[in-house]
Amino acid sequence: MSNSTLLQKIEQCREEMLTLSRSHTLTSEAVVTSSVKLDQLINEYQNNK
User: Fold this and answer.
1) Which of 1, 9, 18, 29 is the most buried (most CB within 10 A)?
2) What is residue 1's predicted lDDT score, i.e. its pLDDT?
3) In the 8-state DSSP scheme, what is residue 25?
């Protein structure tokens, strides 16, 4: 996956996590799952550099 595509996915996931965190606790399954997904995307981006 290209770095520009990864950056777009990272931004989308970040927005999703922020939206979820406004309606759920930070330790809720939805927020934690979104956070893990974001971490994986960031790691993939950093490994591609």
Assistant:
1) 9
2) 84
3) -
Alpha carbon distance 14, 7 (integer Å): 10
Counting the structural domains of the chain, the total is: 1
Distance from C-alpha of 5 to C-alpha of 45, rounded to nearest angstrom: 10
Range of the domain at 12: 3-48
- Residue 49: pLDDT above 90? no
d(CA 46, CA 49): 5
Give the Å distances, CA to CA, from 32 to 20, 27, 47, 49: 10, 6, 22, 26
DSSP state of 4: H
The DSSP H or E segment spanning 10 is helix 3-23
